Amino acid sequence: MSYSRAEEAILKFQKGDKEALEVIYNVYRAPLYQFIFRYTNNEQLSIDLVQDTFEKLQRNFQQFDQEKGKFKTYLYQIAYNAMMTRLRRQNVFRTLLPILADRHPHHENSDEKMTVQSAIQSLPEDLRAIVLLTYYHDLTQKEISMILHIPVGTVKSKLHRALRKLREELEVNED
């Protein structure tokens, strides 16, 4: 299923075609699940939050304005807000450890993968979210700023800080 097909479905959904939501769901379900799971490391919570995201999308779709940004950004913003609300309610921030999938599965260096995973897991949650959204979901800094409700400049500085911390952590682990 392609993003262009999803764009057609978005237009149909805006015009009241409720069946178009199924196409949107099929295109975005897996990427949203991956984002949430990498952040929470909780399969059931991730499934629930993807479902919650699409329920909120269906209820609040009239709030989406194509003039303000991309649909993908809007959807990730709903997912991120749902996740943070649920996590605050459950008060489990301290136990979150995202497991990051290797973007290049043909590289099988598990020690290196675990070292990178560990370094990313050690980041504070705000920096971790920006790293995940940037490098694993290919979102722009502007899109991330909209999802996290922070200025673009803050995204840039936090990304820089996250990369610096990762570099320091990985250099220490090399010794």
UniProtKB/TrEMBL annotation:
RNA polymerase sigma factor 70 region 4 type domain sequence ranges: 115-166
UniProt domain RNA polymerase sigma-70 region: residue ranges: 25-91
Sorted UniProt keywords: DNA-binding, Sigma factor, Transcription, Transcription regulation
One of the GO BP terms on file: DNA-templated transcription initiation
Domain of life: Bacteria
Cited InterPro entries: RNA_pol_sigma-70-like, RNA_pol_sigma-70_dom, RNA_pol_sigma70_r2, RNA_pol_sigma70_r4_t2, RNA_pol_sigma_r2, RNA_pol_sigma_r3/r4-like, WH-like_DNA-bd_sf
GO molecular function: DNA binding; sigma factor activity
Gene3D superfamilies xrefs: 1.10.1740.10, Winged helix-like DNA-binding domain superfamily/Winged helix DNA-binding domain
Keyword DNA-binding listed: yes
Alphabetized NCBIfam families for the sequence: sigma70-ECF
Family per record: Belongs to the sigma-70 factor family. ECF subfamily.
The protein, known as: RNA polymerase sigma factor
Species per Swiss-Prot/TrEMBL record: Bacillus timonensis
Species classification: Bacteria, Bacillati, Bacillota, Bacilli, Bacillales
